[in-house]
Structure formats: structure tokens, C-alpha cells
Amino acid sequence: MKVAFLVAPEGVEQVELTEPWQAVIDAGGTPSLLSTTGGRIQAFNHLDKADTFEVDKQVGQAAVEDYDGLVLPGGVANPDFLRTDEGAVSFVREFFQTGKPVAVICHGPWTLIEADVVRGRKITSWPSLETDLRNAGANWVDEQVSVCTEGPNTLVSSRKPDDLKAFNQAFLREFQTVSA
To answer: Is the distance from CB of 124 to CB of 140 less than 8 angstroms?
Structure first.
């Protein structure tokens, strides 16, 4: 199971990157860190700088067919930056077009809104994204984890770091089905 994690050069919520990353490793999978630039990305613990992480590949050089699934961690600045980068948005959109599963947490759905892939989909997020998601045509729900199979792919979503255990279990179940 090869899983792409797409993040901005800075602003990703560290725990929303590291816990799903470790869950992929624990499940015998291979995570890969993608970003819009090479080098290292700067993670955050809410608004405070946390650790940095080495980028495996720039998103413009990555191919969707090389991965079984995509994880979009949150953090307020992270998806706000990604949704302004056409390469990142196109990469996300292609996961939906090719039917591959996507998992997103917290503020991560902002990138999905920009890719125009939430229309008619059931999704959860950080509560402040409810209006944005509804305006984009999504069916927003306030649930620990949502698994939507009504669309071209499976979409797994969660609200916040407190939901990570359920999020990890749900997306791993869906991603392992694809990679089997």
C-alpha cells in the first residue's frame, strides 16, 4: 500500500501528518510526503512551529497511478496554501477522477472545494468549514469519521485531531481494499 500525503511547505498540523503516517507504516504500507516545493516542510502545533519533515517528491513530479490513496492533513494554513496551487489541486482532482480513495481531516477539505470534488458528497470537517462545504454542494455532517462511497471514489473525512484513531482505522480499511 503506497500512500501519498500532500502538504504545503508550511502550516500542516503536525499530529494530523505524523499519526496517519505512522498508521500507514504500522499497517505495512509506504507513505510518501509530497509538497509544492522540495526540501523540508514546516509543521505546526496549532499556531506554534513544530518539527520539519523532508519532502519525498514535489507534487508536480508525482503521478497518481503510483499511489493507492491520498491523505490530506489539516492545519489552517496548509490547505489554504494548497488550494492556490494548481498543481496540487489537479493532483487531488485526479484521485477522484481515477476512483482512488482520499482521506481528509480538519481544514483539509478546503483543497477539495477548490478541486470541485465535494458536490453531492457526504463529508465532515472542522466546524468552521461547514458553510464552505455546503456552499460547494457537499452534505456536511458532524461526525467523528465519515466514509462516503457515493461518488467516483471513497472519501474518508474527520473533524479534528481528537478523531485521529477513528480516522486512521477508516482510511486504512479503505486504502487496503484498493491495494489488495
So the answer is: yes
The yes-or-no verdict on residue 179 having pLDDT over 90 is: no
Place of cell 471513497: 154
Residue 76: the pLDDT is 95
Through-space distance between the first and last CA atoms of the chain, rounded to whole angstroms? 8
CA distances from 48 to 37, 60, 93, 130, 160 (A): 21, 28, 30, 25, 17
Residue 136, phi then psi, degrees to nearest 5: -90, 5
**Residue 13 is placed in which grid cell?**
498540523
**Residue of 161, 5, 180, 19 whose CA lies nearest to 95:** 5
**pLDDT at position 180, please?**
64
The residue count for the chain:
180
Instruction: Name the residue type at position 162.
Output: D
Bridge partners of residue 6, in order along the sequence:
34
* pLDDT given at position 177: 84
Active site residues: 106
